[in-house]
Amino acid sequence: MELDGNTLIFIILILFLFFSSPGGNGVTSQYEFNQLHLFTQQLETEYSTFQNLTYNSNFKNITGLKLSYHDVAENALINATYPIDSKNYEQWYNNENYLIMPDEITQIIGDSIWNITGNGEENIFPPIITSTLLGTITLNSNDKYSRLRMPFANFYEPPRDFSDNIPPVGDTYMDDWEDYNEIHNVTFAKGEMKVQFTHVDKVFTSLQGKKKKYFNSQDENWKLLNVKVDFTDKNENEKHSINTLGVYDIKTGRILAMSESAKFHSLFALPHYMGIGMTKAGQKQTFEQSKKLINEYWNTSKYIDTLTMGYINTLYDDAIEKCEFMMFFQLKPWNQYNKDQLKIIDDELKWPLGRPANLTHVPDIVVTSGMVYSPDCGISLSTNDIHGERYELKIRSIRIHMLCGIFLFAAQIYLLLRQMQHTNTPSSVNKISFYTFCMINLVDGCLATLYFISATLVPELYLPLVISAFASFILASIFETRYLISVYASQVNERNVGIITLLRGRTEDPDAANERPVVIPDEASISSSLYGRFAFTLITFTFLILNSMSWPRHFRIIFEYSAIFILNSYWWPQVFRNAIKGIPSRRERERIENLANRRQNKVPLLWKFIIGTTFIRTLPIIYFFTYSSNIFRHHKDTRFVVILSLWLLFQIVVLYSQDILGARWFLSQHTIPEGYSYFKPVSLALLKEHGDIDDMADTANKGSSGDHPHNIIAKVDCAICMSEVPVYVEELPETHGVDIHDYMVTPCNHIFHTLCLENWMSYKLQCPVCRAPLPPC
Amino acid sequence: MSVENPTGLHNYPVTRTCMILTAVVPFLMAVTNDKYIFLAQYDPFINQYHQYYRFFIYQFCAVNESDVMLLLLLWYDYRHVERLFGSYKYINVILLTLIYTTGILSLLNVAVNVLFPAIIWNKLPTGTLPTVLALFHFYKQYTPQLYEVNLSLSQPWFGKSSNSSFRWTINNQVFLNITIILLLLNQGLVGIGCGLICWIIGIFMEKGLLPGVDNWRLPFLRHVSHLDTPLSGSSRYRMIQSQQQTTELDALNGIQGENVHPDDEAPDEPERSLGVQFLDTFRR
């Protein structure tokens, strides 16, 4: 390969762009550098304050924890700048003088949330709780409690212009803003809640870290969790999502998580709040252990050194857009197991070897009671009935479902192959509806793309996902598209012909006939255009589906139901096609003796294919709509499935009736125009056109003028077998002995033996002489 | 009879089945994430969990992909043995080898672990390594060497005057030998140890110390269609040889008369395999 100067410069430029992206912490300007610097300073100060914190002393200068509920209740517009006069920093009690929530909430948490206390030896809680839990959430009050003032430092704000190098100083109190209440509130009374627990056992030790390192020395008793909580109202108009760190105390089954933002550095608050509802001794122990956990996490992950601009921006956005939430969860104990059994179960789930762990009976992770409180918005919510199975078990059941799916794909491929063998001539393929297979193909293609996308997202299921994607891709893009191409190629004659004309099977006026394209595109051009169309529709539809998942529930369900309904109407185009082609009834078909004819009149779709395809395609829908604990947590709607099944059954019944009664039974007789008939008498003028029969025409003329005694037969050469075809000429009574079913006249007025042309037409629907399209008979 | 074996697996039903099983079982097990049931270890599966079934199934699936590849190559090489024995005898020998190796290795493993709890022989090999190693003896015993090559490498440090050059003789079976060595090394000490034991089992079987090679046959297998007519049993080979000496044409007629029914004419087009049939759906 030759490289000239320009190419070289271009390549260097591209490489420069690649490698000059902001490294590591994402700082791209002086302003951001200063922002990060200020943030680091703030955190270092707060961390050293946290280091001096004991179970019996108050938070000092830590963001979000400077005020207590009592301070705000007394003076709603109090300034939070540390130190506040008359505030006791040297003591700590779990009441509203020190906590950021009212005594009432503290009372509820101590009495009815974290109430499975007492002697820790009695209860055994699962040490590993990676799972997604679902349940409901109820609003207790959103206007009863005072709102804690939580200022955030001004340096978080983005620069005002390019020359701005120094971030502003001071604090902002957001509750002074006018529209504050509109965003920062929970307005629904009851909603749905999703909680995701993931364990944080290992952390990267630097920004470009390749290897993760364990940090937790109290792994037996304490776990650091990543907690993701989403709660919405039923119609998903209002959504609150929190993604933060939490602490799990395995001895008591308590989980505490607090959201984190520029106005609330909750990590430092966890030790004090874990002790709510405990005795002083318990508080001390809990405080010290959880403080150690956070210290270990902080130091191992090099928290200060691994800060990024992205993190600062997320904190800033969260501070502006969201309320802060404190979440108190109590897990249900698994007292049916002892510690050894739990260890075996956890090992087997993590690294299956066939240990004697009865995985089918592992119970769900259940949050028996939970409380969500927002200090800065004064909202209190309680959770009900939150539960879900372990992540690994969920993956196992998804894997089994996917294997069933792969089996369905294989069955569909087999059926399609049988169907393709059944219709292996252009004549029979011509009777297949293009749009039926377009719909089927669209669904399979979308599944293939979705599987491919999810294969990159769920590494645990990579193998089954890739195989599913492969199977559906083979089905959609090789078999079905290939079949579509042959269907399209056999119907290309009819592309620009009206429906009535199609029903009739010929064009009315000869001028229109001339307009038809004589040059028929070959399969290569058809396939390239079809593949292009296939890819385009596929990508559009896949994006639509992916996009629709984030729509509000109302729109999403309308979209889902109508898409399923439309895509499950796939037999209607075939019904229509049958009517156009006018397939005779079963009795008529049996009456036809001629083998070649019978083959051409067979029903285009195999019954095996129709029933099997319908079954294969409806089965997953039935599963998702009737089995309430299905893998996607799709809601249950039996009525829709019943309607859909009846709809499909109706389509099949109509197809069957067409098979039995003939494809046009529902059209009244006079609406059906007569189709093109290949069997018709030949006119003398037509006969004259064919040059080789001049002399015969002369004799015929003589015969008609004078009564000629000889038995005159008009003959034309069949271009296929090169032998003579006797024809029935209307003007010549002498030729009326010829059976008009022995020869065929094409719309382009060429004459062949019936057997010759029928054989030819099963390969190509073009006139062998002039290549004009032939209507299939 | 040609010197080289025909390539491909046409008319090698047993070899083909073995190869397909060697490849397909690990694949299916990987998809369903159940490969671990083919791990055979004394501790903890036998002494703690009492999962004795692992002794009986561990040979059916190689846990590592590299083992799968090596075993596939070896089964392909062993098609000589199928050709020599005929398919029916070959499958019986394979089954017998499987039984002997499974039984002897399992008993030895349990015995060693019970008698010497300190000496740890914990793992058994994965995949059909034991069977393949026992069959290796049969292969060596019955397959003649076709050619050999002398590699003489002069030793540079003695100078040109020295006549002592390094000689290395290899024959046409060197690839098989290398594959066997790789297979043994691939599973470490377990592979080497168990491999040698199984080779000895193979020798014992062939010498008759472990009976059954000549007379143990599973009757129901005879009815499996393609095992019915052994491809080239040694007796038939001898028969063809003798007949060729008289008149070749008569011999050919004789074989044809034996195999083909007189009114059964050969099909005018060759039999189409499944793959060809798939492709044909597009061509037509």
Helix content of chain A: 40-55%
In terms of quaternary structure, the protein is heterodimer
Q: Structural class from helices and strands of chain A?
A: alpha+beta
Beta-strand share of residues of chain B: under 5%
CATH topology of the domain at 13-145 and 184-230 in chain B, anyone?
A: Rhomboid-like fold
Any low-confidence stretches of chain B, pLDDT <50, length ≥5? 228-240, 246-264
Report the helical percentage of chain B.
55-70%
What is the radius of gyration of chain A? 39 Å
The order of strands across the largest sheet of chain B is 1-2
Structural category of chain B: mainly alpha
Counted beta strands of chain A:
16
Count, helices of chain A: 25
* Integer count of domains of chain A: 3
The rough form of chain B would be described as: globular
**Spatial gap, N to C terminus of chain A:** 59 Å
> Element order, helices and strands of chain B?
HHHHHHHEEHHHHH
Low-confidence stretches of chain A: 507-515, 691-710
Described by strand count, sense and barrel closure, the largest sheet of chain A is: 8 strands, antiparallel, barrel
Assigned CATH class of the domain at 13-145 and 184-230 in chain B: Mainly Alpha
Q: How many helices of chain B does DSSP assign?
A: 12
